[in-house]
Design brief:
The complex is a heterodimer of chains A (262) and B (258). Chain A has 262 residues and is an all-alpha fold. Chain A is built from eleven helices and no strands. Chain B has 258 residues and is α/β, with parallel strands linked by helices. Helices cover 36% and strands 26% of the residues of chain B. In chain B, the strands form two sheets. Chain B has a six-stranded mixed β-sheet with strand order 6-7-8-3-9-10, sandwiched between helices. A four-stranded antiparallel β-sheet of chain B has the order 2-1-4-5, covered by helices on one side. Chain B has eight helices and ten strands. In chain B, α6 crosses α8. The radius of gyration of chain B is 18 Å and the shape is globular. The chains are: A mainly alpha (262), B alpha/beta (258). At the A-B interface, α8 and α9 of A face β6, α2 and α4 of B.
């Protein structure tokens, strides 16, 4: 009996996260109907819902979404493989770390989108352009966080291992990698968030598929319902990737060690 | 008399700081014989950790030289194990894996590794905690793991830098007794740094007293150990000879208050 009640309150608590969405939809619908806003500016939720149905059944949404997802996937993979070793190289060298810290911060100020004009001149309106922008956006936080992660490792971990006769390689695999892993995961998570935004923006200008292309194309024909379906898909996919893929990895490996840094 | 294990001669060390060269220690000469437990007590900042780090090979002496088995020390090596005050066992390894780390590095076969780890888990009263991670342990337990890891790697010399300073007073008494027994049974050469007079006399075969910064060795006192073991706090506090030595050391240290 008690358990049943507990389970119910837990479910109710979980539903709280949906409350703001319900409020937003209510306000949207209320504004639309209350002020009689024209369909050229805003459409009512049911229309968006039916556009969603159409885009799903015709496979349009799946096609555009899979382009975006594979782009973010490829960009993450490349950024990880290149960025983590770079972060180690910089983080284990005190002089390099001091020299590059300011530079990396500076680069974070020049958003990926600011590189778009140059990238388009170099690579044209292609997937390469988008990939370059997204990798740039993703890799900086990965390098930066790997570097800070390595630098935050207590010196004693390294000294103790050297006294146990550990080689340089051994120190990398046994101390630096696991020690910096929480930061690497945080960096990757942040990078994927920034990268996802840069991806959508780049797709809008490059127009070679992806959800950014979908919503920007829909603008040409004033398909407000499509634009809104696209926006909802962009937000939903971000949450799905972050909560269902990245967060579990974080808690699985790191919470167990008690070294999870927030 | 046993052979000289560690010989420090004409050692002096300076640090480079923003405000120039800072003298960390005065001139130090120390000889540690094989199988001897030497404790070093001195006020904070006197340079005792600097000396230990130099023997460990973490820093190169500005002046003088350090010999281990007659060979100059150049960098850290597995024949000289170190137990730090804190933050030295790896949080991502279980107790067992932490203790086995040195043996893993030395490529000791698994069966032998397991036997050694099992033995140290018993000696350091870590039974039942083998598969726990350090964050699940108390500070005292973590230091037991650190001690066990160093002993498991079987170095010739063990350097300990205030290993129990960050542990609560009650646990410290137990750890000191355990370490005393470990030293007595394994006959390791141990160099132990502390700022506690009682700890220095309780554990040492010989106690060195250091002056305040830049520290030099001010006095050396032998602590006669009667009988086997005999290193428990009850018999220690009840022994007038031990009390006399402690008082003597206390006077020497007192004069160096900073």
């Amino acid at each position: 009996m008690r358990n049943g009640c507990d389970a119910m309150t837990r479910h109710l608590r979980d539903l709280r996260v949906l409350l703001p969405f319900a409020v937003l939809i209510a306000i949207w619908w209320g504004l639309k109907d209350g002020f009689g806003i024209s369909d050229k500016l805003l459409v009512a939720p049911p229309l968006v819902w039916s556009a969603f149905g159409t885009l799903i059944t015709r496979g349009i949404l799946a096609e555009y979404a899979s382009t975006s997802l594979s782009m973010i996937g490829i960009a993450t993979l490349i950024s990880f493989v290149v960025g983590v070793p770079l972060g180690f190289a910089v983080g284990t060298n005190r002089y390099a770390a001091r020299a590059l810290e300011g530079f990396l911060r500076y680069l974070q100020g020049i958003s990926g989108i600011a590189w778009l004009p140059l990238a388009i001149l170099w690579f044209g309106f292609t997937h390469t352009t988008t990939l370059a922008i997204v990798i740039y956006t993703l890799i900086v936080p990965i390098i930066f966080n790997t570097m800070t992660g390595v630098r935050a490792i207590p010196e004693n971990y390294v000294l103790a291992l050297r006294s146990l006769g550990a080689s340089r390689l051994r120190i990398v695999t046994d101390v630096y990698f696991p020690g910096a892993l929480p930061s690497i995961v945080v960096g990757t998570r942040l990078g994927m968030g920034y990268g996802w935004r840069a991806l959508i923006a780049s797709e809008m200008l490059v127009r070679q598929g992806g959800l950014g292309d979908l919503i920007f194309g829909a603008r040409t024909f004033s398909q407000i319902d499509r634009i809104m379906v696209g926006m909802i898909a962009i937000g939903t996919l971000y949450i799905v990737v972050d909560r269902l893929l990245v967060q579990p990895v974080e808690s699985m490996t790191l919470a167990r060690w008690g070294v999870l840094r927030k | 008399m046993s052979a000289d294990k560690i010989v420090v001669s004409g050692f002096r060390h300076f640090f480079q700081s923003d405000s120039g060269r800072v003298q960390a220690t005065g001139e130090i000469d120390v000889t540690i014989r094989e199988g001897e437990v030497v404790t070093l007590v001195g006020p904070s900042g006197c340079g005792k950790t600097t000396l230990l780090k130099a023997i460990a090979g973490f820093i190169t002496p500005s002046e003088g030289q350090i010999l281990c088995d007659g060979k100059p020390v150049r960098g850290p090596g597995r024949e000289r194990g170190v137990v730090f005050q804190e933050l030295a066992i790896l949080p991502w390894r279980t107790v067992r894996k932490n203790i086995a780390h040195g043996l893993e590095i030395a490529r000791v076969p698994k069966a032998e590794r397991d036997r050694t780890v099992e033995r140290l888990i018993g000696l350091m009263s870590l039974n039942g905690f083998e598969d726990r991670y350090p964050h699940e342990l108390s500070g005292g337990m973590r230091q037991r793991v650190a001690v066990a890891r160093t002993w498991a790697a079987d170095p010739d010399v063990i350097l300990m830098d205030e290993p129990f300073a960050a542990v609560d007073a009650m646990t410290r008494l137990t750890l000191q007794e355990e370490l005393g027994r470990l030293c007595a049974t394994t006959h390791k050469t141990v160099f132990f740094i502390t700022h506690s007079v009682e700890e220095a006399v309780f554990l040492g075969d010989r106690v060195l007293v250091m002056t305040k910064r830049p520290g030099t060795i001010k006095a050396t006192l032998d602590v006669p150990r009667h009988g086997k073991g005999g290193r428990d706090w009850d018999s220690f506090t009840g022994d007038p000879e031990m009390r006399a030595i402690s008082e003597q050391v206390m006077h020497l240290v007192h004069a160096e208050r900073v």
